[in-house]
Amino acid sequence: MTQTEAGFQPAGPANLALGKSEVRTVAGREMLVARGQDGIYYAVASQCSHAALSLEGGRIRGTSVVCPHHGARFCLKTGKVLGPPAHEGIVAYPTRVEENEVMIWPL
Ligand code: FES
After folding, report:
1. How far is the CA of 69 from the centre of ligand 1 (A)?
2. Which strand ranges, in their side-by-side order, compose the sheet holding 101-104?
3. Is 1 a residue whose pLDDT tops 50?
4. Which residue from 9, 46, 63, 67 puts its CA 20 to 30 A from 57's CA?
5. Is 63 a residue whose pLDDT tops 80?
6. Ligand 1 site, residue 67, Cβ cutoff 6 A
7. Spans of all domains in the chain
8. 55 CB under 6 A from ligand 1?
9. In this structure, which residue's CA is closest to atom 3 in ligand 1?
10. What is the pLDDT of residue 107?
């Protein structure tokens, strides 16, 4: 399916410092909205695939997030696992910034 303009939902202000993140609710789903060290905003599922705990407070390393519970690392761009103990990736949502607002496609 082609992404249309209507698919992006407002997800709060683009006010995160580099390497910071916070959990925001978009279209009824909790997501981890993060600003990578590259300055780009990303959004991934807020729940870690290892033990279903929250990624909130996880350290941002480059363009990845490290789960604060057991250290699994996920790519913020793709949601793929980059480090154990998780085996499965998490959902990564299309994200962009429009007029200082983070916009996320909740899929
Ligand atoms: S809950 Fe995230 S690594 Fe265990």
Report:
1. 5
2. 9-13, 101-104, 95-98
3. no
4. 9
5. yes
6. yes
7. 16-104
8. no
9. 70
10. 81
Q: How far is the CA of 16 from the centre of ligand 1 (A)?
A: 24
Pocket of ligand 1 contains residue 80 by CB under 6 Å: no
Q: Is the dihedral of CA 94, 23, 79, 59 positive or negative?
A: positive
Residue 32: name the closest of 50, 49, 46, 20 by CA: 46
Question: What single string gives the DSSP state of each residue in 37-89?
Answer: TTS-EEEEESB-TTTS-B-TTPEEETTEEE-TTT--EEETTT--EEETT--S-
CATH classification code of 16-104 = 2.102.10.10
Helix (H) / strand (E) element for 101: namely strand 101-104
Report which of 69, 65, 68 is spatially closest to residue 79, judged by C-alpha positions.
65
At which residue do the structure tokens 């696992």 appear? Answer: 81
pLDDT of residue 4: 47
Q: What is the pTM of this model?
A: 0.93
Quote the tokens at residue 6.
């209507």
Q: What is the average pLDDT across 19-47? A: 97
Does 48 sit in the ligand 1 pocket, CB within 6 Å?
Answer: yes
